[in-house]
Design a protein that fits this description.
single chain, alpha+beta, Immunoglobulin-like, Jelly Rolls, nine-stranded antiparallel beta sheet, nine-stranded mixed beta sheet, 48 strands
């Protein structure tokens, strides 16, 4: 407390309030007056307890007075009240774990040289309890798909990457999370999960054996009550972990369950602590499983609340040899992963103690669940283009079902997860021939030039749902290159009737589609007649084509009733559509001599019909390819084998490679770039699913050979990337 002159400029830091005795219009002259202030504060310290209380000041003066509170430091004071010559200030409870103080000043209006200043100090509030720290395992994910353990044990987290696993930055949880798109319950997965081998770590193993706690934050993308699936577990004929049980399993619905294997006999005995909480798609759950060895109980908590209890006396039975590890994204299995999870895992932790309910409540609070509102995402048939060129202002369209008006799309850079942008999207409902909804996203300026990978998420009402990972090349003059369509053995599937592969009807169907080409297979008979068929024999006959005279097989029929077509008949039908290429595969015969006979017969037939510019060639036999190149230098000749690098094929003057997508090009996508750099083309076979078609488009192949040419044609007519108008 002090008394003295207060310069006028000090008042700028104060909120001034005049006492009632000061509120007249008269301007007081300075005069000598008595002025003093007392309070109920302890004079020595001026300190009040953290619980709070009321501080009362009493002013003694013959003149007028006012007071001021330093609001820059004391915004926690409640509104003070003046009653006569007293000022009462209510001090609330200090909820922070630090000391706080404020200043109150009293000034004589009659003589401003007179003032009293009081400092009110309040004790710090109690330090809030901290949530327990995971001491056995605490997994942190990274944007590149790897993960690490930040617990004191620093266990190695082995990553098994794959297309069903994506990591992205979560705005709510302020951390990288991992999303799994497995088929729920799928077994024998060798990719798209993480594992931690615990059994050889004696500290980890002992921590589990003496009683333990598992914690996971998860979100289910979809529910399948007919399957058992697991986000975080170490189950294989023993162990411990979480699962979503099947409908009716243990007499329960498809609920979240904690399942330690604890036995008094040494034999496998599952202890079902079931929550009766069925996870809603799109909603996040905080799940904790506790095995209290001393209490002989197993508990499961969901969102901080105890939801289930099971008797669990005995010792922990570990998983079978070869599967003694924790899996994230499924369950441990010998040599693979099972019970695949479809959804997100935000965090996964293991504690070496049986945590209490109060400790678990702290974990739940720390997981930032306050205000989490479940948002339903029921998306299906997602279709989008990746590895494409874009520019500022371009529109990138995602197709699928389950979109809604107001949805936005967020793009997060894999190189810098905090560098993200959310773009508005124009929603279009499915109508007419378009069976898919769409979101047309206009990409903003400022995307870094060059090639970058982005995680794409749907944003709805503040929540987000993973759509997938895309790759963009940002440049000044973007272009989108679409492949040409080749009907594999003609159009004999994809909704057509009365057709079969390698038939004249299949060729006719393909011609009606208006696509680039139709592929067909050629064998040579023993008397040098080329015929159209895929197998060495015709269905329904044991006669090998290359060992039979044409007269022996000419009356054999295909599944649609057609007689076995000759190359001449096929070429005659092909000549009716000058816009379509015929892609002739010369089958690999039993000898080099027969291969050469087939080449000569085919070349002669094509030349006889004057169709040298209308027919291209493919073969699995590399020597056949070189013979065809020599015989038909103006025609396209592509190698099918998949065992030669593009540079070798280009050096032999072939026009391209025609490799299987699933076994070759998907494993060696760089071969597409290398082929184009060497001046040759790339064909991918046989590509039938929409997902594989999109992947091939993304790779930039020149041709796609498919059993579903109508489906591919419709897909290629879909505008995925459009330039600004």
């Amino acid at each position: 407390m002090k008394k003295g002159f207060l310069p006028v400029f000090l008042f700028t830091a104060f909120a001034l309030a005049l006492c009632p005795s000061c509120n007249d219009d008269e301007t007081a002259e300075w005069k000598d007056v008595d002025f003093s202030v007392t309070s109920n504060l302890t004079p020595e310290t001026g300190t009040i307890p953290y619980e709070g209380g009321t501080v009362v000041f009493t002013v003694t003066t013959g003149g007028k007075w006012t007071y001021a509170i330093d609001q820059s430091k004391t915004d926690w004071f409640t509104h003070p009240t003046v009653d006569g010559m007293t000022l009462a200030i209510l001090i609330p409870e200090n909820t922070v774990s630090r000391e706080r103080s404020g200043v109150v000043r009293f000034i004589s209006v009659s003589d401003p040289t007179l003032a009293e200043e009081f400092t009110i100090t309040q004790e710090p509030g109690p330090v809030p309890p901290e949530p327990p720290k995971a001491d056995l395992l605490d997994v942190v994910f990274h944007a590149d798909g790897t993960a690490e353990d930040v617990s004191p044990l620093r266990n190695e987290v082995l990553s098994y990457p794959g297309t069903a696993l994506t990591c992205y930055y979560h705005d709510v949880y302020k951390r990288i999370v991992t999303n799994y798109t497995h088929t729920p319950g799928q077994g024998s997965r060798k990719d798209s999960y993480y594992r931690v081998d615990y059994y050889t770590n004696e500290t980890f193993k002992q921590g589990l054996d003496d009683g333990h706690t598992l914690e996971v934050v998860l979100r289910s993308n979809r529910n399948d009550g007919t399957k058992e699936y697991k986000p975080f577990s170490a189950h294989e004929a023993g162990g411990t972990g979480f699962l979503i049980c099947k409908e009716g399993q243990g007499g329960h619905p498809a609920c979240i369950t904690f399942l330690p294997n604890v036995s008094t006999t040494g034999k496998s005995t599952w202890r079902w602590a079931q929550s009766d909480v069925t996870p809603e798609p799109g909603r996040y759950y905080h799940v904790v499983g506790v095995w209290d060895k001393t209490a002989e109980k197993a508990y499961i908590y969901v969102d901080g609340q105890l939801k289930g209890t099971a008797d669990a006396p005995g010792e922990l039975i570990h998983a079978k040899d070869g599967a003694r590890w924790f899996a994230l994204g499924g369950d441990s299995a010998v040599g693979s992963m099972g019970n695949a999870w479809n959804g997100e895992v935000v965090l996964a932790r293991v504690f070496d103690d049986a945590l209490t309910g109060d400790q678990i409540a702290l974990l739940y609070q720390d997981a930032a669940f306050a205000g989490q509102t479940p948002v339903e995402f029921a998306l299906s048939n997602l279709t989008y283009l990746t590895r494409c060129e874009i520019g500022a202002g371009y529109t990138y369209t995602v197709y699928g079902n389950g979109f809604a008006a107001g949805d936005k799309v967020k793009f997060t850079s894999s190189a810098n997860v905090t560098a993200a942008f959310t773009a508005d999207a124009a929603f279009t409902e499915a109508s007419g021939d378009n069976t898919l909804q769409s979101l047309a996203v206009t990409l903003p300026a400022g995307i870094p030039a060059g090639t970058g990978r982005y995680f794409m998420a749907l944003v709805r009402n503040g929540s987000q749902y993973p759509l997938g990972t895309v790759e963009f090349t940002v440049c000044d003059n973007p272009s989108v290159s679409m492949p040409r369509i080749i009907a594999h053995r003609g159009q004999h599937q994809d909704g057509v009737e009365n057709s079969t592969e390698n038939s004249i009807a299949a060729l006719t169907n393909a011609q009606k589609l208006g696509i680039h080409g139709a592929e067909f297979d050629v064998w040579i008979t023993a008397d040098d007649v080329p015929v159209i068929n895929h197998n060495t024999t015709v269905a329904g006959s044991d006669l090998r084509i290359e060992e039979s005279a044409y007269a022996q097989i000419r009356d054999l029929t295909l599944a649609n009733g057609e007689k076995l077509p000759t190359l001449d008949a096929y070429l005659e039908q092909g000549a009716k559509d000058a816009s379509m290429k015929l892609i002739c595969e010369i089958k690999t015969h039993s000898s080099a001599a027969s291969n050469t006979r087939a080449v000569n017969a085919v070349v002669a037939a094509v030349k006889a019909k004057s169709m040298e510019t209308r027919v291209d060639y493919i073969a699995f036999d590399y020597e056949v390819c070189k013979q065809l190149r020599a015989a038909m230098p103006a025609a396209g000749v592509q190698y099918l084998g998949g065992d030669k690098a593009p540079a070798e094929v280009a050096a032999d003057k072939l026009s391209g490679i025609d490799y299987q997508y699933s076994t070759v090009l998907s494993k060696k996508p760089e071969w597409v770039t290398e082929a184009h750099a060497g001046g040759i083309e790339v064909n991918a076979w046989t590509v039938n699913s929409t997902a594989d078609m999109m992947a091939c488009i993304a790779l930039g192949v020149d041709y796609i050979t498919t059993d579903n040419p109508a489906t591919l044609k419709k897909l290629l007519e879909t505008p995925f990337v459009t330039a600004p108008k």
